[in-house]
Amino acid sequence: MEENRKRIFSGIQPSGKIHLGNYLGAVRNWVQLQDEYDCIYCVVDEHAITVRQDPAELRRKTLELFAQLLACGVDPERSTLFVQSHVTQHAEIAWVLNCFTMFGELSRMTQFKDKSAKHADNVNAGLFTYPVLMAGDILLYQADLVPVGEDQKQHVEICRDIATRFNYNYGDVFTLPDAYIPKVGARVMSLNQPDSKMSKSIPEGCVYLMDKPDEIMRKFKRAITDSDTERCVRYDRANKPGVATLIDIYAAVTGKSYEAIEAEFEGKGYGAFKPAVGEAVVELFRPIRERTEELLADKAQLQQLYRAGAEKASAIAGRTLRKVYKKVGFLER
Ligand code: TYM
């Protein structure tokens, strides 16, 4: 029965802490999908070094992220959770796939354009071939579905293109994956720049899983609303983007519809709405933050879990890589 389940793969970078966008756009779905699918989740530290990292910090953040994912509900009994650099096949397959990816394709990637503008002093080759490493992550596990936020859709598409090209040359080696993008929460916007997505690069507009309740409340109270005179809670992304951002978050956290939310705050104005959204997020994150702290207190248990995860992952990854090496004509050792 297990064998018939479809396979899911997804990853998250340890360059920052989990924020509300990561949670609603991806991690929450990772947890939900465990019931139905064979899930493999990865802390992608190799992707993180495309931007300079402090080594000690990266190690710490990797472990913290691993603990946060467990606290969110990724269950190592049912799913595989591991750290990318522990499974050497990721770097190895990336080389092969680099030879099946075109310069022009990579040049068109939005994230590359954004990141190379942001880190103009370090436009390294890893930043450019980042989507190839990501394609390798997915293809190594023959994943059917990749749960991600909207911003990663283009990367899943190029993964399909690379896999299609490889399969065209060598037969059906890779499963072609589809992106799985949630209906709500796929693109959580920044609280203080509602036309940019929430990300750690805009710290004041970004709410982290590990933020203390008063910090979360402070960020929501300072969230940009709109300078329109009606000051009512109504969903209008074009004209009231700040309010729309908050309604989106409230809808994603509570499961309520836009209509229900508008009715709930009818006649109440932004002064009541902003703290209500903050409270909902505080309560969502409170148990996860507390559980993360407990998990981080037992480093030996975490080590045991990430070692076991790497073992499970590399057994699958090894099979795919051997097949790929054979197909391209590498002499067996
Ligand atoms: P990363 O680490 O930037 O983000 C992790 C996940 O969070 C989603 N996300 C958002 N969703 C909604 N609103 C937002 N504001 C928001 N910000 C981030 C992302 O879409 C992502 O799903 N390249 C990937 C990591 C990766 C990966 C993979 C993903 C590496 N290999 C293989 C899937 C499969 C990344 O940088 O995600």
Mean pLDDT: 96
Helical segment count: 13
Give every kind of bound small molecule, once each: tryptophanyl-5'AMP
End-to-end distance: 35 Å
| Shape call | globular
Number of strands: 5
What strand order characterises the main sheet? 1-2-3
Number of domains: 2
CATH class of the largest domain: Alpha Beta
Biggest pleated sheet: 3 strands, parallel
- CATH topology name of the largest domain, in short, is Rossmann fold
Task: List key phrases describing it.
single chain; about 325 residues; mainly alpha; Rossmann fold; Tyrosyl-Transfer RNA Synthetase; three-stranded parallel sheet; two-stranded parallel sheet; 5 strands; globular; binds tryptophanyl-5'AMP
List the helices and strands and how they pair.
Layout: E1 7-12, H1 20-33, E2 38-43, H2 45-48, H3 55-72, E3 80-83, H4 89-98, H5 103-107, H6 110-118, H7 125-140, E4 145-147, H8 153-170, E5 178-180, H9 213-221, H10 241-254, H11 258-264, H12 269-296, H13 299-328
Parallel strand pairs: 1-2, 2-3, 4-5
Bound molecules: tryptophanyl-5'AMP.
Overview of this protein structure:
- The chain has 333 residues and is mainly alpha-helical.
- The protein has two domains: 7-186 and 299-328, Rossmann fold, CATH 3.40.50; 203-293, Orthogonal Bundle (Tyrosyl-Transfer RNA Synthetase), CATH 1.10.240.10.
- The chain contains 13 helices and five strands.
- It has helices at residues 20-33, 45-48, 55-72, 89-98, 103-107, 110-118, 125-140, 153-170, 213-221, 241-254, 258-264, 269-296, 299-328, and strands at residues 7-12, 38-43, 80-83, 145-147, 178-180.
- The protein has a three-stranded parallel beta sheet with strand order 1-2-3. Strands 4-5 form a two-stranded parallel ribbon.
- α1 links the parallel β1 and β2.
- α7 crosses α8 (153-170).
- The radius of gyration is 21 Å and the shape is globular.
- The relative contact order is 0.14.
- The model has no long low-confidence stretch (mean pLDDT 96).
- Residues 9-13, 21-22, 25-26, 44, 47, 134, 137-138, 146, 148-149, 151-152, 155, 186-188, 197-199 line the site of tryptophanyl-5'AMP.
